Records
---
Amino acid sequence: MLEFTVEGLKLSDQKILAALKIQLNPGETHCLLGPSGCGKTSLLNVMAGLQQESIMTNTNGKSQNLWSQQKPDIGYLFQQPRLLPWRTIVQNLQLVEPNKELVLRMLNEVRLQDYADYYPAKISLGMARRVALARCLLLKPELVLMDEPLTSLDLPTAREMRKLIKRLVCDHPTRSMIYVTHNLDEALELGDTVSVLGNTPAEVIYSNSIDNVPREELEALLKY
Amino acid sequence: MAIGRMGDQVIAFVCLLSIWWVIATLVSTPLLPAPAEVFSALSKEWHEQRLLESLMVTLRRVLISFIFAMALGGLLGVLMGRFRLVNRVLDPLLIILLNIPALVVIILLYIWFGLIEVAAVAAVIINKLPNVAVALREGGRMFDHELDEMSIMYRFSFRQKLMHLWWPQLFPYIMIATRSGLALIWKIVLVVELLGRSDGVGFQLHLAFQLFDVATILAYSFAFILVVQLIEWFILQPLDHNASRWQKGGDNA
């Protein structure tokens, strides 16, 4: 089991997130819901090993070990695709996995095999997000972090992306995922467990298995 | 489109040449020779094998100075752009270097080290280095933080970061520094040669100046302008075109 604990997060000396613990079984998807600006992206950044300056230390001033065991291999799907605009799609992926055959196979998985030689500026945002998903999966990560990967996509594109995420990540037997969103439908479709962040500084105000979550209760919490 | 642009340039060149020829014919003085006299001087210098030899000597100095100025100035500029502390420490030095007249640097180095090749080239490097540093400092400041994070997450090696992340972001600034650098360096090299070397285009200009031989002065000037223009056409523009292909569209690579 993966276990992540943090004493709190701060941005510009202001505490944005209270102490928090997340536990994940292999193959489990945990959805993190909460309003904009409550620190969800900062939390993912810290989990990924970025934005370390935001971590609040223990009362004794010592930096804490965030992962209960060794830090897992992490693949991070940022909110924006963050592809190198001066490299083609296949070149972007080959920076992560030099084996072109594997790269093309992965492009096939995300249905972009015909766009391998395109530059990122020539494809849509939805396609770029699929490329970013392919790049993330080429790392063969133990844990995938996703930061609102469906934001700014139109409904059919978002639906297609959701299916891809479900097939390639959620249905994987050992690959765990933390999926940040403020869309309840996404959480209910993709997640095995769900946590809701609320209050200021943000803290977990609700956490449960998806099967046990009454939709109305979550909707009420998210309005809060 | 390219043919049209070249056509415009030819027309502009012919117009300038015509105006020059008309004025030279009207004033009729050796101080403003007609284009034909300048061409004749060019031909004479070529056949007496001074032109090519002088051009090669000057080009060698330009090339060495350019490489060192770009490498040292580029490194300095990127470090200053990336690290605030380095910028704070080195900024006063950069301002001093930017404001010292080129002539002062040349004279001082010739006095301190003698009229030697190293002093000549060093003087050119010192004059150009701060301009490169300023251009590349801006490049260093404009690095995309989000792509940096991505490169950390996706475990880019140092070489991958250098070739695929940093170099493409710096390239426009390198091209700006290169173009302004070539223009500035060759002018400074001529001054350096005029003041303290016994070969190169600058030295030939010095000889022609002593004889008030304006035709030869113009002949050498045009020859070197042509060389720099050839560098622009056959090296810099193809490099530029290649590097900015992703910006110019086209369906794919």
Note: The interface with chain A takes residues 146-147, 149-150, 152-156, 160, 164-165, 168, 243, 246-247, 249-253 of chain B (CB under 8 Å).
---
Amino acid sequence: MITQWFFTHVDRRGGIAIALLVAIAFLVPLSNLLLPETSPLHIPTYLVSLIGKYLTYALLAVALDLVWGFCGILSLGHGAFFALGGYAMGMYLMRQIGPRGVYADPVLPDFMVFLNWKELPWFWHGFDNFWFAALMVVLVPGALAFGFGWLAFRSRVTGVYLSIITQALTYALLLAFFRNDMGFGGNNGLTDFKDILGFNIQAGTTRSMLFAATALFLALAVFVSSFIIRSKLGKVLVGVRDAESRMRFLGYRVDRYKLFVWTISAMMAGIAGALYVPQVGIINPSEFEPANSIEAVIWVAVGGRGTIIGPIIGAVLVNFGKTYFTAAFPEIWLFALGALFIIVTLFLPKGILGLYGSWRTKLADRAARKKDSAPPPVAAENVHLPEPQAAE
Amino acid sequence: MRLNRLLSVFILMLGFCCHIAQSNAQTVDDATLRPLVQALAGDNFENTTKAISDLVKTGDPRVSKILDALSAGDLYVAKADKTVFLGKRDGSDYAATDPLTGTKLDPVPRSSAEKIKVNNRLRRDIAAAIGGLTLMSDNIAERRSAAEAILKTRDPESIPLLDQAIAAEKDAGVKVLMQQAKAAAVLNSDAADDVKIAAITEVSAGNSRDALGLLTPLENVQGPVGEAAKAAIDSINTKLAFWNAIQNVVYGLSLGSVLLLAAIGLAITFGVMGVINMAHGEMVMIGAYTTFVVQQIIRTSAPGLFDYSLLIALPAAFLVSGGIGVVIERGIIRFLYGRPLETLLATWGISLVLQQAIRSWFGASNVQVGNPSWMAGSFDLGLITLTWSRLWIIVFALSVFAILQLVLKKTMLGLRMRAVTQNRRMASSMGIRTPWVDALTFGLGSGIAGIAGVALSQIDNVSPNLGQGYIIDSFMVVVFGGVGNLWGTLVGAMSLGIANKFLEPFAGAVLGKIVVLVLIILFIQKRPRGLFALKGRAIEA
């Protein structure tokens, strides 16, 4: 019965993706922890963390795709929600350092002692508790997104204007978090973490568990996205994407639908950030850089906007490329990334998955013509996805 | 002054060489000076202080050298005859010189001479005294700095000297400064109230910030002096606040001009094509690098033309950036019509490529772009000092704006551009070749960005990241000002510039910028299409 409920809400691809993610959530840690290092199937810890990082990016991309691919809201500020989630987690990790910091203050993190602060600012209270911090990971980005979206969608700020003000949002946060007075460590950010939930954050076991958590959360995000998209609400969202005014004339409160999916997406991004921070060991204001948010958009575009698993493929591929290029040919990376932006928008408007889809359609077409029988079959992939059109 | 000491001094006056007195200064004959110099070797500091002030009162130019030596501890007194001499250690002796005439004396064994002691208070007195003495100098810069020194020390002792100097002074500017200094000294002395009140009037006429420093200590004095000081402080504060506001406005206008230059090209492309060109900042950057290249060529082949380098760079930058713009439009953007958000991504990609190209070509670090002589320096306007570059950039931005308005309003291209902005399909039906209008618009917008780059190369570091610093601000200007109307861009740029400068003193530069960003975000909610929005159905595509 559960499987039936599951499959009414997830399509075949989504199901495969979830199954795969759950599988690697178990297999990768097992391989890392149980297999001897000499085994060809052993995955070293650094690789576990690296893939874990890619998966948090993938989670961010899924969140972004939910608003851009399915609702036509191009956010150039999703990095802000990601970073806010990361800061919430970072604050928890900072509090866990306790007296082991350089200045050995039992309560204050090092940078506050350095700034000669006498007591913890009010917004740092409660972050010594993991569950409070975990709540903040979703609440803070969610609240910001809700407030921002409530204002923006109600006044019908759309298209390029919306993209620009989301960029302004992350830029303003970037400037704010760079300030030492903000109480978030200024441009050094938060780092030197020791442990999470009592486990040493550097240990291989912890790393594997973080990886497993990331993969499972990503699977959950895929499920939630599919659930939303396949519900009636999802149809309305696609309608908003393709013809916003028409949906409004049909009597739908477009702003509420947008606000809902926007807030959910921001919360997902926050979770992605929270999983990212313990795996890379640092969070600093550069995560708010507008360029980061735009890069996240290209992950979605490469994989295929408006598909559930495209963003995951895009995020992993692009970041793998980034890791490879920045190490092997650092001067070429920006050329490659820039060219990727241009090529994808020009030639692959539906991303890799779209390419795959049209390739299959073509094959099916040719087969049908050869047989010279019934009319060509409809491309199954595109049934629930009308052509992405101009978002304006 | 015992007679024998005097006598010995006269005996020692051998080989008197005439000290060429400085024309402006009065020379006192040695017979008068000698006992005063001897008095420096007094038994206690008080006597020495008195001797110093006596010496200073003579106004003789040699005094400053003697006092210098005293302050440096080079002035000695012989134990036997109490002669004061300038000594330098030379083995077990002091090589001695006469302090007044500069003639060499017989070496004095170290054991039979004693250094004239000075303490810190004396050194301070000496420093002030020397300051007073140079009031009589021949050199106008020295006199000016002496007057400024007294304005700082406010030593009442220097009043008579200042009186002399004021009487002798011919340069009007220095004279005013000296009168200020005298007034300051009077305020610091125990002169009568009416004298002080006159001095307050004198002081408050001068540099307001200095005057504030002089008057504040008097504010709490009882009686008419205190009241006069308080009134003067109030009026100075009002004046300062006024000029401060003017300075904020001018700085804001110059920041706004920078924003205007950076944003105006963006506004044109956005207005006509509905595309935010993310590579716009890189067009600015390329304009700045064009300036660099032009200057390099001029440096190597025609150094005399350097002052005209910017004028040569302007058309060059317009053509280079504009050409690249046309290529980008023809090569990439025209395939993305009707998909504004994807154009945004593609142009972002272009910006990355251009940045990296410039980085590979010219290196990642800043390149040196020189300022022509007419951009350097500054001038005073009332109580504020403005640099010429600041003024020029305002003039330049406004001229670009005016020229662009002319192009839009008076040329065929402008007419077509406006038609396409208002209703693309209708314009197309009327026979306007919209693709060409798009290409030329994009070229024009990019070319103007290049021109902006020439201007920005004068006030900012020219590096591959130059454009990144301006792109977000330019977006803000465009969305704030609204599309399809350049006046919106002008008003938007200037109000953002001025708002930034007025917020800075209260909130600091960074917080001020954050506040402006948040205000824009909120403003967009109120007017989703900016300040000057085009009305009509064409917009709601």
Note: Strands of chain A lie at 190-191, 195-196, 199-200, 282-283.
